[in-house]
Amino acid sequence: MFTSVDDVSARLAANLPAVRGLLRRARRLHWLNPEPRSHRGTGDSAARAYAALVDMHECRTVHQLNALVGRLLPV
Predict the structure, then answer these.
(1) Staple partner for 47: which of 7, 8, 24, 43, CB 3.0–4.6 Å?
(2) How many CA atoms within 13 Å lie on the side-chain side of 39?
(3) Contact status, residue 26 vs residue 5, Cβ threshold 8 Å
């Protein structure tokens, strides 16, 4: 299942109920976030709130994506 829930809240409350709904229906949920871990929760980012519910992975580059897929896929 793929969906889009943006961690930039535009000063609105994080949509945690939507993420909880995904968690009920999905076996696993991983969030690929281009935002550096050190910037999570700054400005209007709700990433920390979402990261409390799901596995959030920093993924800005092809190298990071390749490494993540290598860790997640069974060998």
Answers:
(1) 7
(2) 11
(3) no
Task: Give residue 43's region: left, alpha or beta (phi > 0; psi -120 to 50).
Answer: left
Who contacts 49 (Cβ-Cβ below 8 Å, separation ≥6)?
Answer: 14, 16
Distances (CA, A) of 40 to 16, 34, 64, 71, 75: 16, 10, 17, 22, 31
**Calpha distance 20→61 (Å, rounded):** 28
Full pLDDT tens readout for the chain, 75 residues: 444 455 555 556 788 999 999 999 998 899 999 988 888 878 778 888 899 999 999 999 999 999 999 998 876
